[in-house]
Design goal:
The protein is an alpha+beta fold. It has one domain: DD-peptidase/beta-lactamase superfamily (Beta-lactamase, 3-Layer(aba) Sandwich). It is 26% helix and 19% strand. A hairpin with a 2-residue loop joins strand 8 and strand 9. The longest helix is centred in the last third of the chain and has 16 residues. It is globular. The two termini are 35 Å apart. The N terminus and C terminus are likely disordered.
Length: 360
């Protein structure tokens, strides 16, 4: 997971469509409510009037009614690129939060390793980067078979900084699980991630594991993943990690080995050209989820976020379609009228589903 197959690989998945519904599964509610407010402090964002600072109407779809509609949503700008095969995508301005164009923005799909953005946004600030930790067998006991790994070994001592390099660069589930155990365990980390998702108004997201690996019910949406990226990029460490191309990683004793970021738009791997101005953010792949990617780039003082989920073609397509949408945004985005907004964090708003036809 997180490591893409060679170009031409296929994926199998049947999506569930759900437009930012203000609902939580029983599992997620139990996980969240099982933790006390003292254990999970949340700082709420409020406006000058004292009201929660979020943009969703109490009775509307999160981000705006138009985002609940199926199909391409764009207003006042040139048509989006042709031959986009993704099942869902979003183009948004990172600063203003305006969604410039979308396609099935709230469609619920398996996120793969892009869910690690939420993991990092939840856990990253809890431990000093210089802290050292000796890994045990128990820390790695529940890493799923078939996971992408950075190569963490029991008995070796790592800094927190190195563990985060393993998460961001190699999408290492072993690094995620070690940090989760440092955080009090997998269940606690999942509960905190679910609470963080709700605080960000990411109501399409249900967290089952902190690594994003395939599990029944583990879902998110292009809209939610874009929220996670926007929130994460406000943190300097998050931003630095996701933009790091290579790092030296401990191999035991004084030995190290080099790890490379699996983000092909950043590194230019597999024949792709590095995207000019790319910041990050996170890619993902599993056989169930297919390819997923959220990218951010800055040009001419403007930063755009693009999330692409489940393109129908090979593993390079998720990057090619992200690049095409970024190009469209930088070229035509200034003339686009927003079709929605990336809502601000705060007290969760009540949102309703769209009618069965998918139109709000």
């Amino acid at each position: 997971m997180g490591r893409n197959p060679p170009p031409g690989g296929k994926r199998l998945f049947e999506p569930v469509y759900g437009p930012g519904v203000r609902e939580c599964s029983r599992l997620s509610r139990r996980a969240v409510l099982g933790l006390t407010a003292a254990a999970l402090p949340v700082s709420l964002s409020v406006s000058e009037s004292g009201a929660p600072a979020y943009a969703a109407e109490a009775t509307g779809v999160v981000g705006g009614e138009q985002l609940a509609r199926k199909g391409v949503q764009v207003r006042g700008a040139a048509a989006v690129p042709k031959k986009l095969t993704a099942r869902s995508w979003v183009v948004a301005d990172a600063d203003s939060g305006e969604v410039l164009a979308s396609y099935n923005a709230h469609q619920r799909l398996a996120p793969a390793s892009t869910l690690k953005m939420l993991f990092a946004d939840t856990v990253l600030k809890k431990f000093d980067r210089t802290r050292r930790y000796q890994v045990t067998d128990a820390d790695l006991a529940d890493v799923p078979s078939g996971s992408s790994l950075v190569g963490i070994k029991p008995g070796i001592t790592y800094t927190v900084d190195q563990l985060w390099q393993g998460v961001f660069l190699r999408s290492g589930n072993d690094a995620v699980h070690v940090l989760s155990h440092m955080n009090g365990g997998i269940d606690r980390t999942v509960a905190e991630m679910q609470q963080r998702a709700e605080y960000l108004h990411a109501l399409d997201t249900h967290v089952v594991s902190p690594d994003g690996f395939d599990h029944p019910g583990q879902i998110s949406s292009a809209y939610d993943l874009t929220l996670f990226a926007r929130a994460g990029l406000k943190d300097a460490d998050f931003r630095a990690y996701c933009g790091t191309r290579t790092a030296d990683f401990p191999a035991g004793g004084k030995k190290t080995f080099q790890i490379q970021n699996t983000d092909r738009l950043l590194t230019g791997a597999y024949g792709l050209t590095p995207y000019e101005g790319l910041i990050g953010v996170k890619n993902g792949y599993t056989s169930h989820a297919g390819n997923t990617f959220t990218g951010a780039a800055t040009r001419g003082g403007r930063t755009l976020l693009v999330t692409v989920m489940h393109p129908a073609t090979g593993s390079n397509a998720v990057y090619e379609q992200t690049a095409a949408l970024l190009d469209w945004g930088f070229t035509h985005g200034s003339s686009a009228r927003a079709v929605g907004t990336l809502v601000e964090p705060g007290v969760p708003a009540t949102a309703r589903p769209a009618p069965a036809g998918g139109k709000a």
